[in-house]
Amino acid sequence: MDPETKHPTEAVEPGRSALHELHALGQSVWLDYIRRGILDNGELEEMIRRYDLRGVTSNPSIFEQAIGDSDDYDDAFDLLAADQADANEAYESLAVEDITRACDLFRGVYDRSDGTDGFVSLEVSPELAHDEAGTLAEARRLWQAVGRPNLMVKVPGTEAGLPVIEQLLSDGVNVNITLLFSVRNHEQVMEAFLRGLERRQQAGQPLDRVASVASFFVSRVDSAVDARLNEIARAATDEQTRERALSLRGKAAVANAKLAYRRFKEIFSGARWERLAAAGAQVQRPLWASTSTKNPDYRDVIYVEELIGRHTVNTMPLATVEAFADHGVARTTVDQDVDQAVADIAALRELGIDLDQVTDQLQREGVDKFATSFRELLESVDAKLTRVGQA
After folding, report:
1. Is residue 13 included in any domain, yes or no?
2. What phi, psi does 178 have (nearest 5°)?
3. 371 domain-assigned
4. Closest CA to 252 of 288, 208, 220, 297
5. Cβ(155)–Cβ(135) under 8 Å?
6. How far is it, in rounded angstroms, from Cα 263 to Cα 292?
7. Measured between alpha carbons, how far is 360 from 297 in angstroms, rounded to an integer?
């Protein structure tokens, strides 16, 4: 679908939620948002029913907004200040409590799905993204602190993160691998997953309740590539190049994700995977992240509608959840028009856009952005602790 298309002709069957249709097509909807207020007032519990939510993801930016820009946590800060907690201790206490409560809300989903859904994700400090030992230690500590089988610890898919992912899965810890932008990096993460399960199987440990998702970021790819295409169009000395550049806007992200899904299907087939599946292993599902539409000229649910298929997750901010519930079209799309996706990536290369270079830069920027958000979060926490302590 062209990204500029605002009103497709298909319609959701009357009386049936488009979000429920996604689950029928093999895709789980997770909410990319959490704050204490929606836990306290029952809103998250209601959204689970209304929107067929099957999980929650969080990150430092989400917690920075939730804690820094609301009064949801004021009572908790009174207790933390009285205990003389520092900013790191206070943040972890607040986050662990929220995540634990969310895990308990989704426990029914987890049990009914036999441990394939109902997960809540908590991220290790992004400042540890290039610290293998530090990431492993914090991931294990968070796993123990929450103490729920439907927790997923988020670990970045950086070079330092890959051995951590393998070790955690070998230990039986559920892992959400985040900040994936390239098919190559996705392949590395799937390989780490397989090695981790193979090590666990060799140790005689069960595989059936070890879950993982690979969070593949979408909209940021279009934002980066579209900016380059606009530059090429402005600098073009011939109309053909200009029109070709403009025609490729809004195509890179979906094409990139479809190629990642094609590789997922290839890796999770054949003798190696079948041995693990026979022992009860579940696939490491691709999770489409960064699925809110950044360009107002594009359909507001494009990164949902174009990436629907079996064994996938889409984690959406609340506005995207509501938009898809209102006017989304649910049909299998992620394995459709793959040849066109290949052609679109090739056309970008012909124009001088190296997608691997773009995605590598996006991962570096993503790590830096989350680290900045984490530092801002700790500054907000410290400021609140200081105010409470002085009151």
Report:
1. no
2. -115, 170
3. yes
4. 220
5. yes
6. 24
7. 26
Contact 189, 180 (CB under 8 A): yes
Which one-letter amino acid corresponds to residue 151?
L
Half-sphere exposure for 121 (CA within 13 Å, toward CB): 31
What burial class does residue 357 get, using C-beta atoms within 10 Å of its C-beta: 0-12 exposed, 13-18 middle, 19+ buried? exposed
> Residue 22: inside a domain, yes or no?
yes
Just list the catalytic residues. 154
Read off the amino acid at residue 383.
A
Helices (H), the chain: 18-24, 36-40, 43-51, 60-68, 74-82, 87-105, 107-112, 132-146, 161-171, 183-202, 219-235, 239-247, 252-267, 271-278, 302-305, 318-327, 338-350, 355-390
Max Cα–Cα distance, the chain, nearest Å: 69
Position 304 scores a pLDDT of 98
Domain of 98 in residue numbering reads as 18-220+260-335+360-390
SS3 270: coil
Q: How far apart are CA 195 and CA 198, in angstroms?
A: 5
- Regions of the chain with pLDDT less than 70: 1-16, 391
Tens digits of residue pLDDT in 135-154:
999 999 999 999 999 999 99
Tokens 């680290």 -> residue = 371
Alpha-helical (H) ranges within 160-210 are 161-171, 183-202
How far, in Å, CA of 18 to CA of 339, rounded?
27
Task: Say if residues 102 and 120 touch (Cβ distance below 8 Å).
Answer: yes
The total number of structural domains that make up the chain:
1
Amino acid at 92: E
Helix (H, G, I), strand (E, B) or coil at 326: helix
Length of the chain: 391
Q: Which residue type occupies 137?
A: A
pLDDT of the residue at 17: 75
CATH number at residue 215: 3.20.20.70
Query: For residues 307 and 218, is the Cβ–Cβ distance under 8 A?
Result: yes
The DSSP bridge partners found for residue 214 are 177, 286
Residue 113 and residue 98: Cα distance in Å, rounded? 23
Bridge partners (DSSP) listed for residue 91: none
